[in-house]
Amino acid sequence: MNDVVEQDPQARCNEPCSMGYRKGPTEGIHACCYRCVPCSDGEVSNITDSDLCHKCPDDHWPDERKVKCIPKTYDYLSYDMDIMTQVFYVISILCSAVTLSILTLFILFRDTPVVKANNRTVSFILLTSILLSFLCVFLFLGRPVDITCMLRQMSFGIFFSIAVSSVLAKTITVCIAFKAAKPSSYWKKWVGGNFSSSVIIICSSVQVLICVIWLSVSPPYQEYDMDSYPGKIIIQCNEGSVIVFYIMLGYMGFLAAVSFVLAFMVRTLPDSFNDAKYITFSMLVFCSVWIAMIPAYLSTRGKYMVAVEIFSILACSAGLLGCIFIPKCYIIIMKPQRNSKKHIIGKSNHDIIFQ
């Protein structure tokens, strides 16, 4: 006689819940009846008919089946993983090379009228600050750490303030030069390199002071954002004091606005002084980029927020370089006959101011 294996009867209203699900209550009266509910985001279940799902650690995330926890991926502007980083890298290198070439050209032709017009020293300072602005992009690329978080915003703010202060100094030079060309003018005593240098030093020192206060009160630091994007840990820079950050941007915008208004007012001066036209265009580009950048910056997160700021830095720097210096380079290289004091004096009834 064969042995009969007895089995406990199992009464079920539904099939067992598979892994990745948990039991959920139903409105039925039978205790054996339940429904299978998928585990919530960030939770897993690795047994059949589980009563509960278990939350993954902060640095882990469920796999597609919600059966096990897997490490979250780190998200930042990586040199190896992001095509954006490589594009920004190449653009920054090329723009830096062009800026350095223009600076070298201006040094070689430093005694010619086109370079000497409207204060060549200020032009050298402006070119150097534009070059440093292109190079500071590298502080925004790669994995952020505390030191790069502090340096990236400070360097960007200071270098751009020097650049915009130089543009403001060039604009004031144009105004003074035109007024000083009149006989017995009161403005003659303001003509000279010391006045332009003072404008740059004073305006830039205010931005340096803002950055020092920022570092003293609440400096930027590295942080891990684990909640903004599922399955990713965003490595980013916390700006510390957001108020001081926007004060820095606001001051830079104020300098740009003043430069734009002054350059726009004197844009119709005689040809000897038409550097104001190029300054007007450059400040128009500068202001337009930053006005468009602010809403885009506030509406993005993580590496895309950084990408918006990098694009703005590159666009503004390229705008300053192209609008102010490319026309001068064209004259130096392509129209050398126009790069003479005789030509400029003959073209205008006013004497150009050489520094």
TrEMBL record:
The keyword Signal appears for this protein: yes
InterPro entries: GPCR_3 (IPR000337), GPCR_3_9-Cys_dom (IPR011500), GPCR_3_9-Cys_sf (IPR038550), GPCR_3_C (IPR017978), GPCR_3_Ca_sens_rcpt-rel (IPR000068), GPCR_3_CS (IPR017979), GPCR_3_vmron_rcpt_2 (IPR004073)
Record key words, sorted: Cell membrane, G-protein coupled receptor, Glycoprotein, Membrane, Receptor, Signal, Transducer, Transmembrane, Transmembrane helix
Membrane-spanning parts: 87-109, 121-142, 154-178, 199-217, 243-266, 278-298, 310-333
Gene Ontology MF terms: G protein-coupled receptor activity
Protein name according to UniProt: G-protein coupled receptors family 3 profile domain-containing protein
Domain G-protein coupled receptors family 3 profile: 84-348
Compartment(s) of residence: Cell membrane
GO CC terms of this entry: plasma membrane
Keyword match Transmembrane: yes
PROSITE patterns cross-referenced by the UniProt entry: G_PROTEIN_RECEP_F3_3 (PS00981), G_PROTEIN_RECEP_F3_4 (PS50259)
Bilayer topology term: Multi-pass membrane protein
Main location per the UniProt record: membrane
